[in-house]
Specification:
The chain is of the alpha+beta class. The chain contains 26 helices and 27 strands. Bound molecules: adenosine-5'-diphosphate (ADP) and magnesium ion. This is Kinesin-like protein. Belongs to the TRAFAC class myosin-kinesin ATPase superfamily. Kinesin family.
């Protein structure tokens, strides 16, 4: 609001921001124009009356995959292609016009790409007047009856307004009338047919609450900002009669179409901090037609300038400023109050911005490119200003807004810094070609909505009683009526009424006196005059009475009016309150809508996050389950293993306990035996000492006994629980040993050939067992010789048995002879019969193996011979043997037979549990000479026996028991140390 303060000490007003805390966001509206051609690709869809959706055109989508998504933009209102100019005006411009009438400033601009309908929206097309003509029309419809006479308001050159006195105004009017030939009354004037159909009086709008006690005047200016220069489009260019005019092409221009390049104008700031174009023409207009005609004149001038200067109109901003000056009537309600402080000027700026497209699109070159750059620069500055404003408002920062960087933003600085209502119509062409530009426009528009502008305050009341104009008019009307009733006014302007009145008087008698004695004429005249006087008296009385009556009526009416006025005022106040409430609620709704939109967006994001988390959760749960299952499996496996281990532990414990018990018992027995032998010796000694006669025979026994004792001492302390003893039941004193040995498995450790039990020695000694028999048990070659004489089955068994054979020779003989060996149980795996037949073997012999040219080849009938183990072969067999060869440190080939049992695994495969390793050393064909030497060094030089010895003695690899194997500790197999032949 520009408030006139001229004539008084100019006072700088404090910044308006401080005085008004209420703010409204910039109202951004979106208008979608119809497509140029029906078959054009469309990229915009109106989804509600506040939201549009942009679809990336197919070509773009293909070019840049995923970059362009479908985006929605919301505005205060969206106008679809079917929106009429009237509907748009109703929503967008009408409130601004109402504001200007109520002394509040407004700014309305159209923004968009060239061809999107900015000019169509602002100015309109033939038959479809835009916002500009409609705004003008509404203004004049509203203030029409209250307009001041021309030149009552007169703009000063500082953006202010003066009120001229009646005489000056009248003189100015007369001057104008003499200069122009325009008819006095604009309403009867012929409208230019070029734009006549842009103004449609049938759609006339009218503002409510126009202050009738004020006088109004409308002034318009029209400027163009091109390349950051301001041009006045209404400037009357003085015609220079001397200088010839040339147009740009160099040809002289003819009479009326002279073109003088316009001079650019500068911006100034008035005392209220409003920016104005210094020296800009302001034309006072009294009707819509006149105003639009002025605009049209400017428009034409703009067109000519653009053509002459080869400029593109789409790159310029046009600003049409409607200024409304209003001042209260004086107390009589007759004339405009001559107080300049009471003049209010409000303005509505209608801005048709330049096309917002980028320079590249306009295909500009050279100086045009520079121009285009500037145009873009000014729109860029607008953008930056909006951005900074928004940031300042949202974050409470105080960044400098670069209004001064371009003329457009500088001109409207106070709308954003001060107060006013700002609205923007974003025009969009839905064609796909404009997609990228439209996207930028939408982003700018969305951002602009977030900027808030201080709401203009209501103007103060002037202090006079309201209804002055009406009272004044009513009085005038009444007076005329009465005067007409009475036959004419008093000022004698109407002679017919006066004549009538005069005729109602009695006629005057002839006034000529005939002579000095004429005493008739005078008295008659006196009488007539007296009569007339009386009538006059009566008339005056009547007049006074009527005047009094009229006065009282007027007074009555006045009081009536006053009360009505008061009532109206009251109602108006209430209405104002309601309006405020409504506005507040509207704001609240707006705010809530924004909030809900925000929340919806947040919900959307949260939903997405939740989905992701849920997916994570599901996968984790799945993993957890599988791990739990695995754990469960492992646990059960562990439990099974534990149970098995427990079984094994208890088994072995039991076995060891028994073993220990057995050993203790054996030890005890041995001790007893020793005791007994000593006793016996003592007895014998006693006998030697006492019986001198037997001296010749006795020495032999002690010598035998001496031989025996060391043997006993060197023997293992353990008695031999050999099957041999099973048949030695004749010695009753050894019965316990026999019984014990029956329950204990043969321990190879204790069955070493060199370790004959004491008990057996004693028993032998007692029984007189032949020396050769006893010796036999200690001489392997002898034993082997005997073995060769054994039945075939037995010798074969030995050959295959290799190192595992328990080499207690007598036991074997006895076993064969007696045939009822009830010795300890033997693990089935070790039974020859198993490998001999009945079971199927997988004989795994790698290709690299050297042929075993020995009789000690494992004999595996039915065996499937393979080079590499295959599941197929394994599945058919239940035993597995791997013949593994390696060169030992002494150069001999060491052949290992690694045996195992084939199990079916739960998974359907096969597993081999190795149970046994047998080792055979063989002469390496490569190092044959060395090997031969070693075996030939024997004194008896028997190669076969040497071979046998080698095999027999070198199988010194223990069979490693696996957990769970049912072989007890007593069954641990040990190879025998290689014995050297004496
Ligand atoms: P701009 O000023 O943005 O460059 P114009 O207003 O000149 O665009 O519009 C270009 C053309 O499109 C004009 O011929 C105009 O009549 C037409 N046009 C624009 N908007 C509409 C609309 N809403 N309805 C019908 N025609 C339109
Ligand atoms: Mg345009």
């Amino acid at each position: 609001m520009i408030r006139q303060a001229k004539g008084k000490t100019p006072r700088r007003l404090p910044p308006k921001k401080a005085s008004n805390s209420q703010k409204d966001p910039v109202g951004v509206y979106c208008r979608v124009r119809p497509l140029g051609a029906e078959d054009e690709e469309c990229c915009i869809e109106v989804i509600s009356n506040t939201t549009i959706q942009l679809h990336a055109p197919d070509g773009l989508k293909a070019n840049r995959n995923g970059e362009f998504k479908e985006t929605q933009y919301s505005f205060k209102k969206v106008f679809g292609i079917k929106t009429t100019q009237g509907e748009l005006f109703e929503d967008v411009a009408k409130p601004l016009v109402e504001d200007i009438i109520h002394c509040k400033n407004g700014l309305l601009f159209t923004y968009g790409v060239t061809g999107s309908g900015k000019t169509h929206t602002m100015t309109g097309s033939p038959g479809q007047g835009g916002l500009l003509p409609r705004s003008l029309d509404m203004i004049f419809n509203s203030i029409g009856p209250y307009q001041a006479k021309r030149y009552v308001f007169k703009p000063d050159d500082k953006n202010g307004m003066e009120v001229q006195n009646q005489v000056d105004a009248l003189l100015d009017r007369q001057k104008r009338d003499s200069q122009t030939t325009v008819p006095k009354t604009p309403t009867t004037r012929r409208i230019d047919p070029e734009f006549a159909d842009m103004i449609s009086p049938e759609e006339a709008c009218k503002a409510d609450g126009v202050d009738e006690d004020s006088s109004y005047s409308v002034f318009v200016s029209y400027i163009e900002i091109y390349n950051n220069y301001i041009y006045d489009l209404l400037e009357e260019t003085p015609i220079d009669p001397i200088k010839p005019k040339w147009n740009v092409a160099g040809t002289p221009l003819r009479n009326n179409t002279e073109f003088i390049p316009p001079q650019s104008k500068i911006l100034r700031e008035d005392q209220n901090h409003n920016m104005y174009v210094a020296g800009c023409t302001e034309v006072e207009v009294k009707s819509t037609e006149e105003a639009f005609e002025v605009f049209w004149r400017g428009q034409k001038k703009r067109r000519i300038a653009n053509t002459q200067l080869n400029r593109e109109s789409s790159r310029s901003h046009s600003v049409f400023i409607i200024k409304l000056a209003q001042a209260p009537l004086d107390a009589d309600g007759d004339n405009v109050l001559q107080d300049k402080n009471q003049v209010n000027v409000s303005q509505l700026c209608l801005v048709d911005l330049a096309g917002s497209e980028r320079t590249s699109r306009t295909r500009a070159e050279g100086s045009r490119l520079r121009e285009a750059g500037n145009i873009n620069q000014s729109l860029m500055t607008l953008r930056t200003c909006i951005e900074v404003l928004r940031e300042n408002q949202m974050c409470g920062t105080n960044k400098m807004v670069p209004y001064r960087d371009s003329k457009v933003t500088h001109l409207f600085k106070n709308y954003f810094d001060g107060e006013g209502k700002v609205r923007m119509v974003v025009c969009v062409n839905p064609k796909a070609d404009d997609y990228e530009e439209t996207l930028l426009v939408m982003r700018f528009a969305e951002m602009t909505q977030e900027v808030e502008v201080a709401r203009p305050v209501d103007r103060p009341i002037c202090g006079f009683a309201a209804g002055r104009r009406q009272r004044n008019q009513a009085f005038k009307e009444e007076l005329t009526r009465r005067l007409e009733e009475r036959g004419g006014p008093l000022d004698g302007e109407s002679p017919t009424v006066l004549n009538q009145l005069l005729q109602s008087f009695p006629p005057l008698p002839p006034c000529e006196i005939s002579g000095p004695n004429d005493d008739v004429t005078l008295p008659r005249l006196i009488e007539a005059l007296e009569k007339r006087h009386k009538i006059r008296q009566m008339m005056i009385e009547e007049y006074n009475k009527t005047a009094n009556m009229l006065k009282s009526v007027l007074q009555e009416q006045d009081s009536n009016l006053l009360s009505k006025e008061n009532f109206i005022q009251e109602q108006r106040g209430k209405l104002g309150e309601k309006d405020k409430m409504l506005q507040n609620q509207k704001n609240e709704i707006d705010r809530l809508e924004k909030k809900s939109k925000m929340l919806e967006y947040k919900i959307d994001i949260l939903q997405k996050t939740t989905n992701i988390y849920e997916e994570d959760k599901r996968s984790l749960q799945h993993e957890l389950e599988s791990r739990e299952q695995r754990l469960q499996r492992e646990m059960s496996e562990k439990r099974r293993m534990e149970a098995r281990m427990q079984g094994i532990v208890t088994d072995s414990k039991l076995k060891w306990e028994k073993e220990c018990e057995r050993r203790v018992n054996a030890k005890q027995l041995e001790m007893q035996n020793k005791l007994w032998v000593k006793d016996e010796k003592l007895k014998q000694l006693k006998a030697i000492v006492t019986e001198g006669k037997t001296e010749n025979r006795q020495p032999q026994r002690p010598s035998r006994e001496k031989d025996k004792v060391p043997a006993k001492r060197s023997a293992s302390p353990s008695p031999v629980p050999s099957p041999y003893h099973a048949s030695q039941s004749s010695l009753s004193s050894l019965e316990p040993i026999y019984n014990f040995s029956q329950t204990v498995r043969p321990d190879p450790h204790f069955l070493r050939p060199g370790s004959v039990s004491v008990a057996s020695c004693i028993s032998e000694w007692e029984q007189g067992v032949p020396q050769s028999r006893r010796q036999g048990s200690q001489s392997p070659p002898d034993r082997r010789k005997r073995a060769q004489g054994l039945p075939d089955s037995l010798s074969r068994r030995r050959g295959r048995c290799w190192a595992r054979e328990v080499p207690v020779q007598p036991a074997e003989v006895d076993l064969e002879e007696t045939g009822h060996w009830t010795g300890p149980p033997v693990r089935p795996l070790h039974r020859r019969s198993h490998s001999a037949g009945g079971e199927r073997w997988v004989d795994h012999k790698p290709n690299t193996n050297v042929d075993l040219d020995t009789v000690l080849q494992p004999n595996l009938p039915n065996a499937i011979k393979v080079n590499a183990p295959s599941e197929k072969a394994l599945s058919k067999c239940d035993k597995y043997v791997l013949t593994h060869q390696e060169v030992a440190s002494d150069g001999e080939i060491q052949t290992k037979l690694i045996k195992g049992e084939v199990f079916k695994t739960r998974g359907g495969g096969q597993a081999v549990q190795f149970t046994d390793i047998e080792t055979l050393k063989q002469e390496n064909p490569v190092a044959a000479s060395r090997k031969r030497r070693s075996s030939e060094t024997g004194p008896d030089g028997e190669p076969k026996e040497g071979d046998w010895t080698d095999v027999e003695t070198r199988c010194s690899v223990a069979v490693e028991m696996r957990a769970g194997s049912n072989l007890g500790p007593g069954y641990q197999h040990h190879g025998y140390p290689k014995r050297r032949k004496p």
